[in-house]
Amino acid sequence: MSASSATLSAASTLFSVNILITGATGYIGGSVLTRLLGSGMMFRKNANFTALVRKQEQADLLSTKGVNGVVFAGLDDTEVLRKQASQHDIVINTASASHLQAAEAILLGLADRKKGGKMACLIHTSGTSCFGDNPVSGIYRDDNQEIIHSDNEPNTIKHQLLYAYEKHREETHPYPQRTTDVFVMERSEQLGVRAHILCSPTIYGIGTGFFNRLSIQAVGIMRAARRDGYVFVIGQGAGEWDHVHIEDLSSLYELMVDHLTKGNFLPCNMTGMYFTEAGHHSWREVSERVAKEGFRLGYLPSDEVREVTLQEAKEKMGSDMPAELLELGFASRSRTKAGYARELLGWDPVKTRTDFEESFAKEWEAVMQEIA
């Protein structure tokens, strides 16, 4: 029996499904967890959830929600990661997109589980900064500035173009998140474990988790603007990205779990990259909307947007953020098409352009509550 058919056989005969989630106290992981807990899909009736957390009080709170909270030392605690992964059918890794050692420990644990003929699947979380260019530093520029990366075009599946693209980028200039993507695709193939990477663009909206509910990119700009009194944009802000609402994204994780527990085979490993776009924006638009809503709500003295250099932006966002990450995450062009999600999983995002535009006011209010 092949590795894939063995996995499908195991999945189709499951009476219960054990799901492990990392990053459950975070923005993505917390929202995914609450979505799964409240799911009306078939898997929910017999699903058991475990979450790895760093504090006992977090584990205690999760236990009141029907989740087994396991306290561990963090992602460097690879022994615990491997052991816990070996005890679960599906591992949803939302804790870090760039911690390669943690990803390997999870894959090794799933491989241990698979040896017993049990279901062993990974849903790994990544981001589309891996596909962004470097318009400021010039480290990398796509020859085709109109390119939109697709996960389900026939030639993509046949020639594994997304894997090849990331592999090529790594050979010329490594980037930790992309390094981890490539590793997960290659190592899962070697181990015979099914790995699926959900690669998301800008995620917006207030989360639904029990802990952190704030996003990263727009919120980061808001915090800096509140401190400085004006909103910045790197250069002209011409780079375009996609976006997805956190609730739509959580529903995609739910759909994937549903398909996996039903034994439906989904592209994985070398062809297992799933994009999650549901709209797009420019960085100039993001900064202008942050400024407009911040001024309207009385949080900023004006709706001014100042163009700054990459180094100036780095100083505003904190010296701990690498310049390359800042450039890829706040200035690059990265466009994608979520074909797999829509065609294979039946994903149908419900949030609209209006929801994106209205999210800036809601996130401003959440940021101000945090500051208070």
TrEMBL record:
Residues 19-261 form the NAD-dependent epimerase/dehydratase domain. It comes from the Eukaryota. Pfam families: Epimerase. GO terms for molecular function: aldehyde dehydrogenase (NAD+) activity. One of its GO terms (cellular component) is cytoplasm. This is NAD-dependent epimerase/dehydratase domain-containing protein.
